[in-house]
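ok posting inputs for the FE2/S2 (inorganic) cluster job
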Amino acid sequence: MSLVKIKTRINGKAIESEVEPRKLLVHFLREDLGLTGTHVGCDTSNCGACTVLINGRAVKSCTMLAVQADGNEITTIEGISRNGELHPLQKAFLEKHGLQCGYCTPGMLLTSLWLLKKNRNPSEEEIRKNLSGNLCRCTGYQSIVESIKYGAQLMKEKEEEQEMPVR
Amino acid sequence: MEDALQLLSKYGDDAKVMAGGQSLIPLLKLRIASFPYVVNISGLKGLNQIVEKGDYLEIGSLTTISELEENDLVKEKYQALHEAAGLIADPLVRNMGTIGGNVSHGDPSNDIPAVIIALKAKLELAGLRGNRNVDADSFVTDSFTTVLEKGEILKRILIPIPGTNSGGCYIKHKKSAGDFSVAAVAVHLRLEDDERVKSAGIGLTSVAPKPLRAVRGESYLEGKKLTDSTVREAAKIVVSESNPSTDFYGSLEFKKKVLGRITEEAIHLSFERAMVR
Ligand SMILES: Cc1cc2nc3c(=O)[nH]c(=O)nc-3n(C[C@H](O)[C@H](O)[C@H](O)COP(=O)(O)OP(=O)(O)OC[C@H]3O[C@@H](n4cnc5c(N)ncnc54)[C@H](O)[C@@H]3O)c2cc1C
Ligand code: FES
Ligand code: FES
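and the output
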């Protein structure tokens, strides 16, 4: 099958690649680029383990072709820490036990980052509704919801810190 | 648009339109369907707008379900549509799936068709030989079958702007979050000044081989004052128009029971909303 050229920006880096038109985005990320933090859980569009951000919006990368990403900005779990420091939401998951086996965690984090960008102060109900496409077999969700609430708080604190004038 | 139509005409049966891919890609992955050429129309310009123009609300077919759900105009004036959008699949699927794909797929369990049937919408189709309009209730003809001719693209959905004293809702009974429905109903009512029903629209999801317009239920309501007993009778008529089958989502009897209950609820709620306006 002939290859198609695509241009994307992945975790801030411009990337040009050639892909088979039928290749799924998740396989492009994992196999071609080695970004294996994006997981395949069900492969039937149900679990959200494969969630990535396309232009800031959370989508299932197992239900999207790599060619559909052409011209777009993609964020995977590898792209959310800064200078070797975990993202505040990642720290919150660590501290509040938002993960056990960790398989669902990249998807949980990215879906929640999308929510927190739209709504810095989500209610418990909004957090739960937003996660309805992300399944977790381990935690029972309670600790994930706690982590997201705590993460929202940490993100706000960090922002305020950065806005404080340097003396 | 012209390019897309040319490609579709060139490859004929070998080509398939794809918008968000949220229904098509799962089918391709399971090898339930296979096409040598997939024509991705998601980049077509100007088809993701939601605007009131003249007598209609125009919704571009490439508008995503999320965009529909988040739109303020829809939230305020087209509550059934807003409610249905928020009940489709999960937020991740809604970020990719489009309103045009939801309707064109022809799935009797997809939620948008019943709503646009209740709202008496028209669909604008584009083809190489020009555009044509069809009524929402005649668009899906059978399970996964629509009036779209080979090479045609659904361009816009045109919903009549609701008059004063009108209101509606969408009620979906489902087994778990993010799932398709056991049964769902869209109702839209317009009232006279004396509170009698001036016009009614009722669309049904998951209770027949295609999305259904409950024509007899609609005409029973028209001209009537709503009381508990007229609403109960209307729901009975609506159930008699349905034709569900027993499957994973429940038995035929169960689905009819659910449909009766949510139809009563939906008529009452639509009436309350129409009274507030
Ligand atoms: C896990 C999961 C759960 C879901 N749950 C629900 C649910 O609860 N309720 C619900 O309603 N849906 C549900 N869906 C289905 C999905 O939401 C819709 O079918 C989706 O919105 C379709 O839009 P799309 O743009 O992705 O269509 P695509 O997958 O791109 O296309 C679907 C079909 O429509 C045709 N098509 C698309 N756009 C056009 C156009 N403009 N003109 C002509 N033909 C066109 C395609 O050729 C194809 O046949 C679910 C899907 C998944 C994966
Ligand atoms: S792997 Fe994509 S939704 Fe489960
Ligand atoms: S932590 Fe194991 S699936 Fe969520």
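notes: The longest strand of chain A covers residues 4-10. The mean pLDDT of chain A is 95.
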